[in-house]
Specification:
Elements: E1 2-4, H1 7-19, E2 32-40, E3 43-50, E4 63-69, H2 70-76
Antiparallel strand pairs: 1-2, 2-3, 3-4
Length: about 80
């Protein structure tokens, strides 16, 4: 089940991803956006989209999933 994040949750999720060194697997950019979380065993999976328009001229960056544990999920507000 997908959980749409509000603006505060989204900013916290993106901050956590940067703090943990998450980068786009295709271009290496840390300019990632998050809007959806999904419950997973032991935590949540966040959908992260790369925002590097130069590396992704087709308009949509690479999607990858970022796992967070329950402590990190509480920081985000899930």
């Amino acid at each position: 089940m997908a959980i749409e994040l509000n603006d505060d949750q989204r900013l916290r999720a993106e901050r956590l991803a940067r703090l943990k060194g998450e980068k786009c697997p295709r271009c290496g950019s840390s300019d990632l956006r998050c809007g959806v979380a999904r419950a997973d065993l032991g935590g949540y999976m966040l959908d992260l989209w790369c925002q590097n328009e130069e590396a992704h001229p087709e308009g949509v960056g690479t999607l990858h999933h970022f796992g967070v544990n329950n402590v990190e999920a509480r920081f985000i507000g899930l």
